[in-house]
Design brief:
heterodimer, A: alpha+beta, Histidine-containing Protein, Chain: A, four-stranded antiparallel sheet, 4 strands, B: alpha/beta, 3 domains, eight-stranded mixed sheet, eight-stranded parallel beta barrel, 21 helices, metal-binding (chain B), cytoplasm (chain B), phosphotransferase system (chain B), transferase (chain B), sugar transport (chain B)
Amino acid sequence: MERTVTVVPEDGLHARPASQFVETANEFDADVQLGRADEDDLVPAASMLAVTGLGVGHDESVRLVAEGDDAEAALDALEDILSTPEAKQ
Amino acid sequence: MTERTLSGIGVTPLSGVGTVVWYRPDADLPEPPAPEDVDAEAELARFEDARAAAEDELEAERERTAERVGEEEAAVFDAHVQFLNDPQITDGVTDAIEGGLPAEHAVQETFSEFVEQFENMGGRMGERADDLRDVRDRLVRVLADGERVDLSSLPEGSVVVAERLTPSDTAQLDPERVAGFVTVTGGRTSHAAIFARSLALPAIVGVGEELQSVEDGTEVVVDGESGDLVVDPTDERKEAAAAAADVDVRHESVETADGVDIEVAANIGTLADLGPAVDRGADGVGLFRTEFLFLDRESPPDEDEQYEAYVEALESFDGGRVVVRTLDIGGDKPVPYLDLPDEENPFLGERGIRRSLGPDADLFETQVRALLRAAASADGANLSVMLPLVSTVEELRAGRERFESVAADLDAEGVANELPEFGIMVETPAAAFMADQFAPHVDFFSIGTNDLAQYVMAAERGNERVSELGDYRQPAVLRAIDATVSATEGEDCWVGMCGEMAGDPALTELLVGLGLGELSMSAVTVPQVKAAVAETDTADARELAERVLQADTKAEVTEILTLDQ
């Protein structure tokens, strides 16, 4: 299962949005991977190091790939974070 | 074994004998043992335990920060937890341990790779590198803990020796078991020094790198008066130190050899300081730092709580004066419920009376109400109040008017109150220059020498690089004191002194000679200063003061004072 999403938060995938993203990815059983939309390389969404290491900024597009029972729910939750301007409290 | 002596800065006039325990909280990792000597399974278990402990710490810090500062700032700890549990990190550490490294070396190595990676990416990634370093240091510290000296359970008679001691270090020290402490760095007004005085512990600071040559388990004498650390002392030396530890406490008030009364009082922060003040024979309180009633809590103390604190202080002394300084809060003393500005230089910013007449007007009013009521209590006639950091006559007038208008409010409410004796702290050069203009408006001055020295010499307190400049033996500081006292001639205005200088028995004669009638200090030095007062003859003291005021350097001041003894 795969989806392409534009990163809305001002900070990009950094600081709090990144933190929330990784936390959420860890809540699901599905194995989620993440990469830039225009590149083939994928990194584990459950790794803070890997996610912040991508250095994805505001308005860039990312590709989310999920496999597992709750893959769809995981993608929904992660897409929600990436498309919310201010990270939720 | 022969005796040898190292010298530093003595910060308490007390001596102690004990055994050296080195405290090295941030030592570098030792060389790792050979891979075949590492028990990988045991190291993996240590790593897991450390990771769990570090996570607990981070959660606790997250909560505290969210409460004190805000959610936004607390979020960084979430990121730290994620780095801590990151699969790339845990896998890396596990591999390194299995490759034959002890847990702390494995952590060091694994994190360092990622730190370097992030640093090379530059920009905002640099911040992540700082986060990673933080997490790494935390893990290494937790891992090292088992082998680190536990300050809270030292053997009886330990002399703690360290590079420096932080507030969290000293908070753990059990004064009952510690015979003293000695540090490589630090000055008279460093945190460790103030802590030693408040607990009456023999202590020497600023010994320098030479201290590293004193090994764990060595017997030493800590002479907190001279600043001498005697290593491998002779039996005679030890006996002399033990004898010196017995100080003669005088509970009665003291006069000079020629019969002039000098009030010797204690500085207190919280009510817990009252006991030691009474025990050491203080006549009263010369400086009640009321901001301590406001620190380390979620909301300010209300009027009744403050009233009770002031009354308790008054009741602790049999007719002794209690001088309460109104709130002295500023950017250097964080208070969670106050919106303190982030200032470039808090010592020159909005603090003391500046806040009480400005953003903290409501807090000030509550304090003034409590003080006016305390002045009408049974021992209320002994209450005095003073305003901190006054630099203009307008501030003094405005502060005084607040007391008068709040007294009128209390009268209208039918609440018993009295206007207490009223004074100001002389801490700024402005107050010292204008002392003749201030004197007619007040009952007393109290010279705060720590701040006065800092402001007169433009030398930051606690900054070791300028500690020589900020010393109260500098001629300019002595002249500021002399100018203040001289300005009260012919006025009905007494002059006291609070601050470290007042508690230095080597200066007592000089201070009496300069005309100070009250000296207030950390409770620990009260007996020594009382003894010094009793030996002083005021005519000789005045002659000494005149000679000292002619000195052109601090070295000359020190020389005159040394020859005089």
